[in-house]
């Protein structure tokens, strides 16, 4: 006989996200009685609907935390000689706990708890499905006519056990589908329109013939295959079983770190394990630069050849005549997208379709312009580049 499965399932509140000058705030709970989490702390809110009577009190304060500004890494200028790829400076973000935005800490906690619960439910569901399958096999064998002589009296008990396991599996499946954070995005019409335009630009961007993650790059030298290390990645729209949102996230593949998932009100970066960071989009700059890249691989179909270069060059960028078989290589126009923040976010991609990359960066800048500025600065200090 099996033991009936029982597990306590936490029901997570709906989360309503709002932009404000002090950051992204998250309202948890039902209308009239809820908790608002913002950059400056946690407030309890109580009101009587229709009466005009309300009460608000701060229950938790967040200490101020300042992070020294970090200058974004730039594309190299000038020419250079060949450099082993492993010796090039790495292009990577700071640890997740450093780049996370404090105002989204409570939402992060809820997502972490929901993720832990889902992992437990999945493990239990797999175990119960295995027990159900085993019980169904035993019941089918007992119903075979030559075994009914000996096992006939046990068939009702076996049927009862199968029904119990079926109930457990059904309840676990329902709990798994319910163990998610329901995100309600409170977007002004102008913000919504700008984000839709951003999503359309991303739709084009992700169709580029080739997209590379720049994992290493020399600080000085020409932008070619000898002075950087690049790895092919994909951009796509991504759904999350954990976060229920009206809009799909824009996913930027990251070869040497956490993939970047762009939602309307936050950016999620998740590590290989359970750790992740939530970042206010107003803390992020996305800049574009047209790059003339000396290409030693096949030229992508959506790129434009703008000149020629040499496989081996001198420090002044001229042909290195020490090499008799110094090949002529095409110079291709690519688009570079740099994503960074003052807290340490630092990622860079190379896109074969330069016009798509530029269009996305402009759409991002337009999206930022319609967001309410953060207190104490413009949208991003010096503003988005474009």
Automatic annotation (TrEMBL):
Q: Where is this region: Disordered?
A: 65-87
Entry-linked InterPro entries: DUF4236
Per its UniProt record, what Pfam families does this chain match? Answer: DUF4236 (PF14020)
Ranges for domain DUF4236: 4-56
Q: What's this protein's name?
A: DUF4236 domain-containing protein
Naturally occurring in which organism (per UniProt)? Insolitispirillum peregrinum
Identify the taxonomic lineage of the organism of origin. Bacteria, Pseudomonadati, Pseudomonadota, Alphaproteobacteria, Rhodospirillales
């Amino acid at each position: 006989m099996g033991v009936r499965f029982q597990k306590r399932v936490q029901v997570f509140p709906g989360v309503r996200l709002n932009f404000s000058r002090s950051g992204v705030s998250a309202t948890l709970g039902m209308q009239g009685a809820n908790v608002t989490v913002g950059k400056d702390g946690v407030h309890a809110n109580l009101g009587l609907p229709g009466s005009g009577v309300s009460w608000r009190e701060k229950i938790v304060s967040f200490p101020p935390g300042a992070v020294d500004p970090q200058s974004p890494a730039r594309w190299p200028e000038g020419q250079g000689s060949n450099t082993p790829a492993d010796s090039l400076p790495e292009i990577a973000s700071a640890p997740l706990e450093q780049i996370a935005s404090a105002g989204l800490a409570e939402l992060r906690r809820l997502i972490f708890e929901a993720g832990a619960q889902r992992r437990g439910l999945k493990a239990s569901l797999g175990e119960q499905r295995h027990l159900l399958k085993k019980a169904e096999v035993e019941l089918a064998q007992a119903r075979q006519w030559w075994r009914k002589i000996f096992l006939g009296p046990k068939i009702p008990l076996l049927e009862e056990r199968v029904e119990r396991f079926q109930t457990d599996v059904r309840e676990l499946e329902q709990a798994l589908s319910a163990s998610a954070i329901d995100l309600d995005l409170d977007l002004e019409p102008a913000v919504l329109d700008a984000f839709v335009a951003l999503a359309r630009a991303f739709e084009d961007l992700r169709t580029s013939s080739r997209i590379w993650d720049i994992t290493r790059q020399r600080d000085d030298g020409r932008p070619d295959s000898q002075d950087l290390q690049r790895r092919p990645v994909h951009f796509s729209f991504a759904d999350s079983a954990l976060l229920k949102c009206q809009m799909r996230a824009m996913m930027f593949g990251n070869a040497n770190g956490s993939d970047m998932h762009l939602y309307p009100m936050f950016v999620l970066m998740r590590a290989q394990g359970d750790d992740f960071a939530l970042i206010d989009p107003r803390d992020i700059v996305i800049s574009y630069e047209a790059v003339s890249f000396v290409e030693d691989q096949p030229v992508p179909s959506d790129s434009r050849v703008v000149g020629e270069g040499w496989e081996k060059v001198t420090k002044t960028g001229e042909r290195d005549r020490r090499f008799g078989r110094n090949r002529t290589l095409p110079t291709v126009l690519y688009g570079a997208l740099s994503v960074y923040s003052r807290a340490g976010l630092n990622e860079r991609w190379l896109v074969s379709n330069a016009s798509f990359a530029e269009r996305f960066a402009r759409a991002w800048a337009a999206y930022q312009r319609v967001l309410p500025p953060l207190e104490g600065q413009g949208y991003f200090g010096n503003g988005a580049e474009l």
